[in-house]
Amino acid sequence: MTRGRVVLLALLLGLALLLAAGRPWLHADLTGLLAGTPSVAVPGTQAAPTVPAVALVALAAAAALSIAGRVGRVAAAVALGAGGVAASAAALAAANDPVALASAAVATRTAGVPLAAEQVTVTAWPAVAAVLGALLAVLGAVAAVAGRGWGGGRRYEPAQRAQPAQPAQSSESPERTAPDEQSGEPVDDWDALTRGEDPT
Fold first, then answer.
1. For residue 102, how far is the Cα from the chain centroid?
2. Residue 185, SS3 per DSSP
3. pTM of the shown model
4. In terms of CB atoms within 10 Å, which end of the chain has fewer, N or C?
5. Which of 55, 53, 43 minimizes the C-alpha distance to 123?
């Protein structure tokens, strides 16, 4: 899977999870306990605060996956997968124990009187959040595997400085070329003159 698709899916799932967390997860029937208020809706942000936090983590991970290098991509993928598992677990916990959550949510209104099971209704949003969390966990695993083949974010890295060209060095030593440059004659001719020979 390409980087663009993973980033897009992470953004969509994060936004969907954030939307699901803001919807009412539980309905508490307060008839007979609180006059004038027949029912109270408990949103997912209150029933499972972990879920909106994971949604924000998913959005941040999507941004990191789009620009980070290899190490950053691995960290973002791990955060995405772990966050998805945590969101699913929190949503399932809220659906499995709605009475305790609803009682805690309306405790200040009911003077701490616990609610009965028949007074609490669970909506479909906890199940939606659990599915979205599972998809995020799978996407995190896919990003960890597929991210190995993605190119590094080189456009975000400082460009390497160009190394100055080294001047070409002559194969002859300065001691041998100096006399040659002054007289224009081969060095061997100088050696012959030193020995008293006529090089011509």
1. 34
2. coil
3. 0.70
4. C
5. 43
Cα–Cα distance for residue pair 161/149, rounded to 1 Å = 27
Alpha carbon of 29 to those of 34, 40, 190: distances in Å?
9, 7, 116
Cα 103 from Cα 91, distance rounded (Å): 17
Which residue in 20, 40, 44, 18 sits closest to 30, CA to CA?
Answer: 40
Tokens linked to 177: 């070329």
Handedness of CA 86, 91, 94, 95 (dihedral sign): negative
Residues of the chain predicted below pLDDT 70: 32-37, 112, 151-187, 199-200
* Token digits of residue 200: 């011509």
**Do 96 and 48 meet the contact criterion of CB atoms below 8 Å apart?**
no
pLDDT of residue 180: 45
Alpha helices in the chain (DSSP H): 3-22, 44-47, 50-67, 70-96, 98-105, 125-146, 174-183, 187-194
Q: Which residues pair with 29 in a beta bridge?
A: 39
Report the C-alpha gap between 125 and 127 in whole angstroms: 5
